[in-house]
Amino acid sequence: MEETVEKRDPEKGGAFPSERSRWIASLSYLTVLCFFTLWKSKDDPFIKYHARQGFLLLLSECAVLIMLLVLDLTVGKLRLIGILIIGLLQLFAGLGALTISILGFVKALFGEYWHLPFLGEYRERIPGFHDTEA
Known about the structure:
Structural class: mainly alpha
Distance between the termini: 41 Å
Radius of gyration: 17 Å
Strand content: under 5%
Oligomer: single chain
Largest sheet: none
Number of helices: 4
Number of strands: 0
Order of helices and strands: HHHH
């Protein structure tokens, strides 16, 4: 399976993003810094693209954390098997979130429009701080 990666804005055919834009966009994959990048994405479609994906990643990490807390309070009370199941789920969820965050950080730093697995299609539904209807 070969992954296709665009280095230009697929909708606008824009130029390669500047170094400043790439660094700001890469910060969007570092948990709560996605709010900073949403704020800085005023006129830059590259930053806006990655800021929205970073926000989706943060939302999904919070949802998984809540799910794991609920499971820990229920299934985690079982003696050995509950602790083992919850421990493995927490390990896989943490490693998965860390892997996707690092991958997004690196792709944004190299100036690529990278599609976030499972969540990327919802990216355009996230409003930015500077979105206005004309």
